[in-house]
Amino acid sequence: RVMLSHIDRNPDLRLHRQLAERGAFLQYDSPGRIKYQPETVVVGLMRQVIEAGLGPQLLLGGDTARRSYWKAYGGGPGLDYLLAVFTPRLRDEGFTEAELRMIWQDNPARWLSGRSG
Question: pLDDT above 90 covers what percent of the chain?
Answer without folding.
Answer: 70
